[in-house]
Amino acid sequence: MKIGVLALQGDFREHLQVVRGLGHEAVAVRLPRHLDGLDGLIIPGGESTAIGKLMVAYDLVAPLRALISDGLPTWGTCAGMILLARSTDNAMLGQPLLAAMDIHVCRNAFGAQRESFITSLDIPVLGPEPFRAVFIRAPVVLEAGPAVEILARLDGDGPIVGVRQGPLVGTAFHPEIAGDTRFHHYFLDIVCAGRATPAASS
Ligand code: GLN
């Protein structure tokens, strides 16, 4: 499969490496033409305000919105999840969002960079083994609409940190640096299922 990784800012290289390591083609997306022929897209972590400004500068906002609303499987990690959200508690003035998922998020929910942490998460869709989750100046999901499946909460019943809405996935943490590829497998399975739909395979 051909997976695009938005490569404007943040830790896109790590996602490219994991996807390639799993045997798929991974392309860095910097311009609208790099979106051609993608089966799935990953929006990495980094700084959502910077990524948003660069998305505007490189004319990526409209094509990304169009592809995502057409059903392109898309996974946002950390800043990427913020960009997929319909709204945030503390957006910078004029911060562009793709507004694709029915989630309301809080940026920097745990405080500054030094409040970053690593913890074990139960993520039932990945199986019984806990997932080593890296949180770096991470957001949380404050509200999730009825179409949103909750994939993970901190400490079992704490804040929501993993969500899915159809072919869209958001994680507040960074599986690309966890040394555990189960989350990438999970997303690639969603991409693969999308390709198998009659419209895509005819
Ligand atoms: N705090 C960052 C933001 O608001 C996200 C941090 C991250 O992606 N690791 O965009």
Can you tell me about this structure?
By secondary structure, the protein is an alpha/beta fold. It has one domain: Class I glutamine amidotransferase (GATase) domain (Rossmann fold). The chain is built from 6 helices and 12 strands. The strands form 3 sheets. It has a 7-stranded mixed β-sheet. Strand 10 and strand 11 form a beta hairpin. The protein is globular. The two termini are 17 Å apart. The site of glutamine (GLN) has 11 residues, from helix 4.
User: Order of SSEs, N→C?
Assistant: EHEEHHEHEEEEEEEEHH
For the record, give the distance between the C-alpha atoms at the N and C termini, rounded to a whole number. 17 Å
CATH class: Alpha Beta
Strand order of the largest sheet: 2-1-3-4-12-11-10
The oligomerization state is: single chain
When the domains are counted, the total is: 1
CATH topology: Rossmann fold
Number of helices: 6
Report the major sheet. Answer: 7 strands, mixed
Low-confidence parts lasting 5 or more residues at pLDDT below 50?
none
Beta percentage is: 25-35%
Supply the CATH superfamily name.
Class I glutamine amidotransferase (GATase) domain
What is the helix content?
Answer: 25-40%
Assigned CATH architecture: 3-Layer(aba) Sandwich
Unique ligands? glutamine
Number of strands: 12
Give the integer mean of the pLDDT values. 94
Keywords:
single chain; Rossmann fold; binds glutamine
Structure in a nutshell:
The chain has 202 residues and is of the alpha/beta class. 26% of the residues lie in helices and 29% in strands.
